[in-house]
């Protein structure tokens, strides 16, 4: 039985003045997932995240958290949400621990949570240092520690790896995995980096020009690659092969004097093609499957939608 979504938007629209930003966005975030919210810069990711937190009011549509309409139960529902939007606001002259403590006291959270969240994000050994001495990656983790103070069920993270060095990106990635697997958090993480999302997400939504152009599990997105895969055949004379085997090479494109490209159909078709070429006395120098990367698939989705919009 399919679980009810932890977060859902229904027909979400937003305009900035007269300029439309979001068009009928219907997100669905499953409990226990890491939802990678992907899109080029300016596609509408940050606007959507602000709408999810009630920082902006939608022009039309609704946001539902934990099965309830946020417009009616905003304060109660947002108590179960932690967020890190852009760079965290920190007091640079205070230590990491003092930054967490300041927020903990304002929110009335139990005192033991300060040590717990600092340990959770890997900052316990550096909690005595002033925030001005923290690297960008450490600052992001400190912001995440503050977002985790109330032990939220849902985390909303807007571009949390933006500007981080490779070590910082790896640390953030591993932290998100642990939060999901060991602490049961559901996480929505926005990014324009498909390669990073691929390594951490269970589900993906792709937004372009304010429209959701794909939504599904990571395997669903990966299956789109197979539909765009091609065989590359290397032989002596591409035209001769295509004339000898018109059925098997239907739809083939001559990419060079000895190279053919054709859509990948199945393993059986590939095996039959190799056997037929050999039986016809044609040399077979190479036969390989080329699949687009997830980055190629992401670019294809966003470019196709952009063309349709224009």
UniProtKB/TrEMBL annotation:
GO MF, any single term: ATP binding
Gene3D superfamilies: P-loop containing nucleotide triphosphate hydrolases (3.40.50.300)
Source species, domain of life: Bacteria
Keyword line: ATP-binding, Nucleotide-binding, Transport
Domain ABC transporter: from-to ranges: 7-234
InterPro entries, per the entry: AAA+_ATPase, ABC_transporter-like_ATP-bd, ABC_transporter-like_CS, P-loop_NTPase
A Pfam family assignment: ABC_tran
Family indicated by similarity: Belongs to the ABC transporter superfamily.
Full protein name: Bacitracin ABC transporter ATP-binding protein
